[in-house]
Design goal:
The protein is mainly beta. The chain contains 1 helix and 11 strands. This is Alkylphosphonate utilization protein.
Length: about 120
């Protein structure tokens, strides 16, 4: 078992040491061994369906029709969702969709809005 910390960028467990730096083979991120502890390793990076990082307050667009559990309503493809909040858990986006109300979404079903 490796005693090296996971990658702070993508949480990959396959980091290796290259000289004085640690390197992640999956995302290519390089960092100093003490850097992750200083920056706070609890920071989770949430990415959209295209791999773009998301942040609180972003506007996203739904990329797939989503059935709402317990209802006959559907969130249609292309629906814009403004002012998202990132949360921990399986559904990592907390938002309010106009005409539907408060909802939790998975980041793999949205893409960051360019405009």
């Amino acid at each position: 078992m490796s005693t090296l910390p996971p990658c702070p960028a993508c949480a990959s467990e396959y980091a290796y040491q290259d000289g004085l730096l640690l390197v992640c083979p999956e995302c290519g991120h390089e960092w100093a061994p003490g850097e992750a502890a200083e920056a706070g390793e609890d920071v989770k990076l949430v990415r959209d369906a295209n791999g773009n990082p998301l942040a609180d307050g972003d506007t996203v667009v739904v990329v797939k029709d989503l059935k709402i559990k317990g209802s006959s309503s559907v969130v249609k493809i292309g629906t814009k969702v403004r002012n998202i909040r990132l949360v921990d858990g399986d559904h990592d986006i907390d938002c309010r969709i106009e005409g539907i109300g408060p909802m939790k979404l998975k980041s793999c079903f949205v893409k960051k809005d360019a405009g």
